[in-house]
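Why do we care about 3D structure at all? Because function follows from shape, and shape follows, mostly, from sequence. That is the central idea of this module. The next example makes it concrete: a single protein chain, its amino acid sequence, and then its structure expressed as tokens.
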Amino acid sequence: MHGGERKKRHILHSGRTVRIFLCKQSAVMIKSLLPLAEDAAEYWLRTHLKRYKRSAINWFCAVFSLFDGSFSSDMDFSDEDWEELHAIVSAAAETLDMHTVSAIMSVMVERNKL
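And the structure:
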């Protein structure tokens, strides 16, 4: 196996590890957020797989913060990320409590991302 292939396998393994971590943490923290965590993890694997682990961890921490209401003014996502996160939240809105949906959408409105 050459270096590029080994690196790709390492990145894929890291992505799965981060996805599992995100989903487990979501289930432990707030069970109702599991659909958001699963969809956000899938999106991340499709779009952010090539990032380094620290970047991935920071991204997931920001996603958790958005989902749990602790998203701070210094946190942000790319426009593409905001669009996908909006789609994820909209798709899961029926299964989430209204307070969670409202809090997430409020952040998106404040950031002019809707």
